[in-house]
Amino acid sequence: MTHFLLISMTQKLVIIGLELGALNKLKQLRLDDSSIDKSFLHMVGVLTSLNVLTMSHCGFSGSLPAQGWCELKKLQEIDISHNHFDGILPSCLANLTSLQVLDLSYNHFNGNIALSQLSSWTSLEYLSLSNNDFLNPISLSWFFNHSNLKVLLSENNKIAFEPNSHGGTPTFQLEFLVMSNCSFDGLKRTPRFLQYQYDLQVVDLSFNNLVGKIPTWLVENNTRLVCLVLMNNSFTGPFRVSNDIRPNIRYTDIAVNYIEGPIPANFSLIFPNLEYLNMSNNALQGSIPSSFGNLVSLWILDLSKNQLSGTIPMHFAVGCDSLAFLKLSYNNLSGQIFPTNSNMTALSYLYLDNNKFSGKIPKSISIVSYGSIDFSNNYLSGMIPTWMGNMSGLNLLSMAKNQLEGPIPFELCKLDLQLLHLSYNNLFGSIPSCSNLSRTEFLYLNKNSLSGLIPSSLILNTSDLIGLDLRDNHLTGNIPHSIGSLPSLRILLLRANHLQGRIPIQLCLLQTLNMLDLSYNKFSGPIPHCLSNITLKASFQEDDLRGLSSGLGSTNSFLPSLPYFETKYTTPPDEEFPRIHWGASLNVKPEAEFTTKRITYSYKGDILQYMFGIDLSCNRLVGEIPPELGSMSNIRALNLSHNSLSGPIPVTFSNLKQIESLDLSYNNLNGKIPLQLTEMTSLAVFSVAHNNLSGTTPDRKNQFGTFDESSYDGNIFLCGPPLQNNCTKMRPPSTMPVDNEGEEGDIFMDMGVFYISFVGAYITVLLGIVAVLFINPYWRRAWFNLIEVCIDTCYCFVVVHYHKLFNYRSA
């Protein structure tokens, strides 16, 4: 006898493979194949004994049919989640009076739930409406008679509760309530009906902008509470707890609120079994209670972005031996990082950045498995310990903006790092020629005193490199030709070193490059024409911009067990569990500093998708600007200033529609400024100052109407506004030649007229002299005497000096 059927093939196999008699006795039907047609729902009406119908992830779309499956009055469980259903719920659902479990999540249903037939389902125990388009207003008053309701999940919907004056008391006692990221229409305070709930195990009201005091009464009223998630609201005031022990609470998230005051000193006594605590992004003050060392089960602690001060308590560093994730970033903590007898042997993720920690890096730090360390922006001193190379599980290492000194230990080459960030320190010596950085994606060594060559082996062994920042060091030599072997490179910053030679054409192979900064070096030769091969497109992957992976595993492994699902709902969707929102805090996002519009900006995360720039300024480049650069239509910043470039400004630059900053100043450019440049309507900064340009300035239209005289300074043959040189005073307007395009030329006289006038004047003067000598005999004799004297004088001069020269050579 058939009581259960799991269909993962096609509708045809279902119809052919079973007889009608067997179908009448079918109790459970589970579909998980997108090849099954939605018309199958019209035929399930023959399954009169069916209790469970599951059709999740089948790719169904359109509205639910109003016939066929609505006749299944014995149905107790329906799961149609993760499809593309839309429209309102059919009225025939009222016939399903035995329904206990209904999952409508992850569809596009809309309409007013209060006007649907759900009110007739008094046997309902589990209801999931999450991630739909249900509209305002809906009220919980229609749930008040559902005495069996235990689970209500309604994430990402628009919820309008009844006013606080509503006097009704719900008959249900919920165990799980998830209403995160809802639009509480007209309501900003915690829903009043929660004051009548005493059996809650999980409460998630995150991302709702609720105001008022933090509802600690939820903890006091519900002794079985395991998870409390109130993050990303607007709760204020201190976090006060009662003196009653709550041993069941294991997961607490009150991050991103306005909670102030100190952390209660008895916190660990009230919540002795806490495993997860996130109080980040608040206004907490005071020190970290030493009693936190009693939280022996604590696995994850995030107190970042508060106003905590003092040192890390010794009892905390010794007692929390189960702690795997610790984030204290962006506080005012000081002193040494950990005492020498620290017992945090399970630690994998340590984020202490943006504090005031000082002293040397303690040897007590030990990272196990797949982990990260961020000590950046503190006052750490001394050398980078060589023993850090033994932390084989380390994945991200950031110690930027400290006072570290000495060479970069070669032992770091042993680590399989995705990111190494040592910028803004006092490191010196050469860059290690590491051969074990095949997984390295971001390498930041800028703002140090590193010297020597850029190791070719370093380039060859980092095939996954995305960002390389070596700015502001003392590096010498050429850019290794192996740079072209980095197909994923998007950021290359070599500014302010002593690099020389020609710009290698291998850079043209980096077609995914977003930022190229070679400024303030000694590069010579022409600009490679092939730089136009760089596509300057949004080439970052979503994972690159979100940040480097934490590797902590699935979120469900951190959540408490949910016994109701285990006993009542055989296949609970993982997405309905309360979220672990700290996932983003584990990531180190890619970043880059780039100078544009004469200001150095720091680009981080998603903004890198939209910033494309090339800076070759302050070098010794010669030759003409390649017209091919005009094909880089997505470029936003181009700086070629302070070189020895010559020739005209390419007319093709008018194709740079997205460019915001163009600096060609301090070169030897000549010719006129192409009037077509006024088509660059996004331009905010423009400079051609100190060149040899001539002619008129571009029309004062579009962005060019905003540029002042400083954009054209140092070009003595330029005229026109905003310059003080008036073009009408520099050349006659009536005889000004016109070029092929109808524009005024660059010269001030008609050369044909000049030649004719010169020849005519020469002939006139010559004929005048002949006429005078012919008429006046006295002047004629004087003229010929003068000619004879000149000839005799020249003859004597040549003879005398010839004999002197001959006698000198004979002697």
Automatic annotation (TrEMBL):
* GO cellular component, as recorded: plasma membrane
Question: Where is it mainly found?
Answer: membrane
Annotated signal peptide:
1-17
UniProt cross-references to Pfam families, sorted A to Z: LRR_1, LRR_8
Q: Which UniProt keywords apply?
A: Cell membrane, Glycoprotein, Leucine-rich repeat, Membrane, Receptor, Repeat, Signal, Transmembrane, Transmembrane helix
From the Swiss-Prot or TrEMBL record, state where the protein is found.
Answer: Cell membrane
The portions of this protein that span the membrane are 753-775, 782-802
Superkingdom, natural source: Eukaryota
Q: Enumerate the PANTHER family for this protein.
A: LEUCINE-RICH REPEAT RECEPTOR PROTEIN KINASE MSL1-LIKE ISOFORM X1, RECEPTOR-LIKE PROTEIN 14
Q: Please report which protein family the annotation says this sequence is part of.
A: Belongs to the RLP family.
Spell out the protein name for this chain. Uncharacterized protein
**Organism whose genome encodes this protein:** Quercus lobata (Valley oak)
